[in-house]
Design brief:
The protein is of the alpha+beta class. It has two domains: about 290 residues; about 35 residues. The strands form five sheets. Strands 3, 4, 6, 8, 11, 12, 14, 16 and 17 form a nine-stranded mixed beta sheet that branches. Strands 1-2-5-10-9 form a five-stranded antiparallel beta sheet. The protein is elongated and about 110 Å long.
Length: about 325
């Protein structure tokens, strides 16, 4: 099983090893938009998984929540909007000379593979109350799915605490996987704002987690794992500025405080607690600036080179003209 913030991906054991492990697929990026109002929490979860799927394998996201949730397909425009609202101020820097690293192709472009969006299967969303966790695991086994003992233990840990288990079946093709389903919109009753993450501890690759919290005031991480998280932004955002967030900001009267933080877990096995948030004692946090390099191009080449080449050509022409003038004078 591959876990992502309380979400895991299970594949039929017959399609891979005798026991399905996190080695088949791993979630390497998870972004979550969080809102908590009057005991109702709303999450928008976006994940990227990488790995290999054998022919016939199916993917299933597994989500644990304090109470039985409502789950629907969400909008990526919401994530785009919160990212834009919390982005550093852009400072443009002109580059007139070629970047030596760009010769032979950009290393960043070579490393970045295209991320795919895999559809959610028809009728692929289901929620199971805590008392049905064991029967749900049996349901998986009957259909050729087998979870590692650690996965079963974690699911039973959540179920034992009265949490619900939900699944979202995702149609991923056989072969190389790099991407995930559309963002998943999850709403459930919760006494405190929480992002379930313990299931993510079964992953085998580094996981980068980014949170965008919308609240009446700044909300900071309060869980024991927060020490290595980095605050990137906290400030006001309005529906007028970002209409894509209107639905999320409506419970706050159309405006709220957005707080962004990021944390990388080099070893997901260290994720031993769920992530929680509480009201901060601090105020706004500016995102700072970010330099954007703009290449100045003339006729498809860096402007600096073209100007030098043009100057040299002009000097050559002047030299020829001067030479001809001198030759005529001495005839």
């Amino acid at each position: 099983m591959l876990a992502v913030g309380g979400i895991g991906v299970a594949v039929p054991a017959a399609a891979v090893d005798p026991i399905a492990t996190a080695g088949a697929l791993d979630v390497v990026d998870q972004t979550t938009v969080v809102s908590w109002v009057d005991g109702v929490e709303r999450l928008l979860v976006d994940v990227r998984a990488v790995g290999q799927l054998e022919s016939g394998a199916q993917s299933m996201l597994i989500l644990a929540t304090p109470t039985t949730p409502t789950i629907t397909e969400g909008s990526r425009e919401v994530i785009t909007a919160v990212a834009a609202a919390s982005a550093p101020e852009e400072v443009v820097e002109e580059r007139w000379w070629p970047d030596l690293e760009s010769f032979g192709g950009s290393s960043d472009e070579a490393a970045a593979a295209r991320e795919a969006v895999y559809p959610i299967a028809p009728d692929g969303i289901g929620a199971y109350p805590a008392e049905s966790a064991d029967s749900w695991i049996s349901w998986l086994s009957e259909r050729g799915y087998q979870l590692a003992d650690q996965d079963v233990s974690l699911i039973q840990r959540y179920a034992g605490a009265g949490w619900a288990i939900s699944v979202v079946q995702v149609e991923m093709p056989a072969g190389t996987v790099n991407g995930g389903p559309p963002p998943i919109d999850v709403s459930f009753a919760s006494e405190t704002p929480v992002v379930p993450m313990v299931l993510a501890s079964t992953g085998s690759q580094s996981l980068t987690y980014t949170s965008y919290v919308l609240a009446a005031e700044r909300m900071d991480r309060s869980d024991p794992l927060r020490g290595n998280s980095t605050l990137l932004f906290s400030g006001p955002v309005t529906a007028r500025q970002y209409p894509e967030l209107s639905d999320w900001l409506e419970p706050f009267g159309g405006s709220a405080v957005l707080t962004k933080s990021v944390q990388t877990f080099p070893s997901p096995s260290r994720i031993t607690e769920d992530l929680t948030f509480s009201v901060s004692t601090y105020g706004p946090f500016d995102a700072g600036t970010e330099t954007k390099v703009v290449d100045r191009i003339i006729l498809g080449l860096p402007a600096g080179l073209m100007l030098v080449a043009g100057g040299m050509l002009l000097l050559a022409i002047l030299g020829i003209v001067l030479s001809q003038i001198l030759q005529r004078r001495y005839r």
